[in-house]
């Protein structure tokens, strides 16, 4: 089957557009800005079409390098390490697209074959996409009249639970806790506070526990009110602001109340 140069250029541009969208889905980066996406798709399609029409290994190698660099330009926030990992799915998706195009171009017209191949490349990554792992969350805490918003790390290793209430414990650094409450001197307690025995890398310690008036987590585009206690790190310099147990982000009955 023979097609015109313009038809081939349109086909390559459409394929490049679908490849970039599928790569964004695979890597969890979402869709790039529309103008940048269309411009890079046209550039990649033009490079691929020019390489095929020119023939020879050198133009094709140059086009391949240009296409490989397109994801790095499309998502400016992408690290070089992430880009290197993306090269493997880029090659696999392109091979898949070529195979689908060959299968679809039997009894179908050329444009329908391209559309069928691109649809396959778009649907496969979406079907295999996993739920992204949230590594940090916005934390709103209110204790009495003091309300503080901070960025917290989601720590799957934080398995602390209060033996009395069974509630998970959000660990705060001493500086973060001091922004919303008065901390007692060592060995003392203020009304509404108690100690929780814990084990750390340095040995056994007592963690100060406080029950907040309200705790709200914002993670993965969702806001939820959670039931948890606040624990104040016994270390003077904790190296973090807050550690949120990963269980508070799981959709389990009683674990959270949607805001």
Which percent bin holds the helix content? 40-55%
| Integer average pLDDT | 76
Give the radius of gyration: 27 Å
The total count of helices amounts to: 6
The profile of the biggest β sheet is: 10 strands, mixed
Helix/sheet category: alpha+beta
Q: How far apart are the termini?
A: 58 Å
Order of helices and strands: HHHHHEEEHEEEEEEE
Overall morphology: elongated
- β-strand percent reads 15-25%
* Quantity of strands, as a count: 10
Write the layout of secondary structure elements.
Blueprint: H1 5-27, H2 34-54, H3 57-74, H4 80-104, H5 110-128, E1 136-143, E2 146-155, E3 169-172, H6 174-178, E4 193-200, E5 203-210, E6 214-219, E7 222-226, E8 229-232, E9 242-245, E10 256-258
Structure notes:
This protein is of the alpha+beta class and 259 residues long. It is 43% helix and 23% strand. The chain has 6 helices and 10 strands; from the N terminus they run H-H-H-H-H-E-E-E-H-E-E-E-E-E-E-E. A 10-stranded mixed beta sheet has the order 4-5-8-3-9-2-1-6-7-10. Strand 6 (214-219) and strand 7 (222-226) form a beta hairpin. Helix 1 (5-27) crosses helix 2, helix 1 (5-27) packs parallel to helix 5 (110-128) and helix 4 packs across helix 5. The longest helix has 25 residues, at 80-104. It is elongated and about 85 Å long. Mean pLDDT is 76; it is low at 252-259.
